[in-house]
């Protein structure tokens, strides 16, 4: 494979998968990691990808937000493991916030409370899936419904959250870095997430390893706002150590 063909392949893989991992790609292509790094640096100079910890993401990811159907088609095996592990962290929580998005939806699917539990969510999809669940009372936030995620936003949702106190919040994001924390493309979404973090006693971040090392547009929380991050084994050990050094427990499942 010529270098031009290889770099085109890398761009297409990044756009399809949402992230390129240097170690994974070098093994698949049978090339040295340094060769892949040089390719990615060249592609970054052309404005086609952005280098992140351990790999690269397509530039479109910085502003593009996929819908629930697209998200449900990616990395489902890893996401299901993450969701199951996260659901085990509920412990004695009786009021739980579940964020909008595909992975939080999977967390909701794994919830089987044995005591009365109130679930607060901005997601119409999650509210619908839980409304008949035993021992669960659902409070769905009001507001403008976003077509991409079926989540509610704007001041109505923020105002509702401001009046409650929650035991536990399961949060997602489009990107997470040590420098900029948790980020999303939409300021209206960030406002709801920020308030959810503020009114929750415990906070757990759920995200597959493709989220780490890349930034989106608007920050809603710092990594240190979370007691635990649950992700898959694809997260580099060094990144997990850096998070642990900041007082954040990391589960790589």
Structure description:
With 253 residues, the chain is of the alpha/beta class. The protein has ten helices and 15 strands. The chain has helices at 3-17, 22-29, 33-45, 68-71, 76-87, 102-110, 124-130, 155-162, 187-198, 237-245; strands at residues 20-21, 49-52, 55-58, 95-98, 117-121, 136-140, 144-146, 151-153, 166-171, 175-177, 181-184, 200-206, 218-221, 228-231, 249-252. The protein has a seven-stranded parallel β-sheet with strand order 6-5-4-9-12-14-15, with helices on both faces. α2 (22-29) crosses α3 and α5 crosses α6 (102-110). The two termini are 35 Å apart.
State the end-to-end distance: 35 Å
Q: What are the low-pLDDT stretches, counting only 5+ consecutive residues below 50?
A: none
CATH architecture of the largest domain: 3-Layer(aba) Sandwich
Rg result: 19 Å
Dominant shape: elongated
Helix content range of the residues, please?
A: 25-40%
Q: Strand order of the main beta sheet, please?
A: 6-5-4-9-12-14-15
Mean pLDDT across all amino acids:
91
Provide a count of the helices: 10
Following the backbone from N to C, one meets helices and strands in this order, namely: HEHHEEHHEHEHEEEHEEEHEEEHE
Please give the number of β-strands: 15
Please describe the biggest sheet, giving its number of strands, its sense, and whether it closes into a barrel.
Answer: 7 strands, parallel
The CATH topology of the largest domain corresponds to Rossmann fold
Name the structural class.
alpha/beta
> Any idea of the CATH class of the largest domain?
Alpha Beta
Quaternary arrangement of the chains shown?
A: single chain
Count of separate structural domains: 2
Strand content: 15-25%
């Amino acid at each position: 494979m010529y270098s031009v063909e290889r770099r085109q392949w890398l761009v297409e893989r990044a756009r399809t998968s949402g992230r390129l991992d240097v170690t994974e790609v070098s093994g698949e292509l049978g090339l040295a990691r340094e060769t892949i790094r040089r390719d990615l640096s060249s592609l970054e100079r052309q404005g086609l990808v952005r280098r992140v910890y351990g790999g690269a993401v397509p530039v479109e990811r910085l502003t593009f937000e996929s819908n629930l159907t697209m998200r449900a088609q990616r990395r489902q095996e890893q996401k299901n493991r993450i969701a199951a592990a996260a659901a085990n962290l509920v412990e004695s929580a009786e009021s739980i916030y579940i964020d909008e998005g595909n992975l939080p939806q999977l967390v909701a699917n794994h919830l089987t409370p044995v005591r009365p539990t109130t679930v607060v969510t901005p997601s119409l999809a999650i509210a619908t899936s839980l409304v008949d669940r035993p021992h669960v009372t659902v409070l769905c936030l009001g507001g403008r419904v976003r077509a991409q995620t079926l989540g509610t936003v704007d001041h109505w949702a923020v105002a509702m959250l401001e009046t409650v106190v929650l035991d536990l919040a399961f949060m997602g994001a489009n990107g997470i870095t040590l420098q900029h924390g948790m980020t999303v493309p939409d300021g209206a979404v960030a406002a709801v997430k920020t308030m959810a973090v503020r009114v929750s006693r415990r906070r757990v971040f759920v995200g597959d390893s493709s989220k780490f090392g890349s930034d989106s547009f608007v920050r809603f929380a710092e990594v240190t706002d979370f007691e635990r991050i649950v992700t898959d084994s694809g997260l580099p050990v060094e990144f997990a150590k850096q998070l642990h050094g900041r007082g954040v427990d990391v589960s790589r499942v």
